[in-house]
Every structure is written in C-alpha cells, then in structure tokens.
Give the backbone structure.
Amino acid sequence: MQPAKPNILVIVPCFNEQGAIASVVRDLVAVRQREGYQLDVLVVNDCSTDKSMDIIRTLPCLYLNLPVNLGIGGAMHSGYRYAYLHGYDIAVQVDGDGQHPADELPTVLEPILKQEADISIGSRFINREGFQSSFSRRVGIKYFRWLNQLLIGKTIHDSTSGFRAFNQRTIAIANNYYPDEYPEPESIVQFGLQGLRIKEVPVRMRHRQEGVSSINTSRAFYYMLKVSLGILFMYFRLVNKRAD
C-alpha cells in the first residue's frame, strides 16, 4: 500500500538542451507546489557539449553529470538506479526537450497513485490531441503497436512515449536491467513478459522546444530494424528464462 504522500522522483534526461532545460525543471517545481507532491527533480546530464550543465547547476533540482555519453537508455538507467538506491516510491520520466508539459504530470501519476498499474504511459494517440509526431515516426509507432500485440498480447498506442511513471516494483526491475539505446518500445516487451501491469493515459504533448531527434525519415527504417532485433532478443531471452 502506498504511503499518504509517496516520494516521487522525476528523472529528466538531458543532452544539449540548454534552451529548454530550465523551463522544464521550473514547470515541474511549479506543479510540485501546486499539487503538494513530495517530489524531487533529478536531471541526468548525458555529457552535453553545450551550456546545459552550467544551467542545471543554477536550477532547484538534483543532478547527475555523466562523464561519458550513455544515450537515452543509459541516462534513464542511471536515474532509475538513483531512485532505487534512495528508496523512492515512484519514478517518472520527463524528457528534457520540453515535449512533455508538466501540467500533465498528475494524469500520468494517477494510475500509479491509485495502484491500478505498475507502469503508466502518457499517450498522445488516445484522444489525438496536441503534437502527433511526424508521419514516418507514426508509421513506426503503429508497427511497434502490432509487434507488442504479437509478442505480449497488449495494445500500446504510444510505445515510444518517454512520458511514463513506474512504481517501486518496476523501479527495482529497471535498476537491474534497462535497455540501452531506444529503451521505450523494448522495455514494454520486457515489462509485459515480467507480468507488470501497463496502462496508457491520454496526454497532450508539444513540439520539442530544443534539440534534434536522432530519428529522422532517412534513419526510420534503420531504427525499426535495430529496435525490432533488440525486442526479439529480449523476448526470446525472457521467454526461455520463464520456461526454465
């Protein structure tokens, strides 16, 4: 049973987002004060080469300054490990580029606070409001929706969403292992096979306020192929482990 006011850690991965990171942190702090959450913000600076780290040091937040670039999976794994080691009840991922409005945080937290899910995912495709992503990315997301249904029997509309909350059970699992490079779709299969309850909630997202996505039209096929291989490797590893 969750305590009356669970300890929440919002993890913000940051790589060269000097133009957005300050407003992301300050918006989260404003929601903390408005909602009365017991909440800390942890920015994981993934070896930014711009002035992100100089800005982070001035903000009302915790931070990790990674000595080498680990990518989004490594940055989030560092954050989940921090959450696990410091005993947080809930961990939330919010991207550092400003795509995820802090005002939507209560919506993403609700299934965890009500103990209705182990993982809550903010989805832009349930009510189809706000930023809907590029055409090539939507094609990829539909493909991963099909792959999730095939492998774990779950329909996840926004499998690449990085706006998600974990309870303590999921934090403990993510502390032991979290996918490296494109973790969102791969981790859904991981968590589904481990019997965790996944729930999507409708949220509005925005265009990124800073930075450039690593997934563009020319790299979309490469991304889908690489993530598919990672997902299949994950699937057969965990299925065989369950069979032992």
In short: The CA atoms of residues 14 and 45 lie 5 Å apart. The first strand starts at residue 7 and ends at 14. The first helix runs from residue 21 to 35. The mean pLDDT is 89.
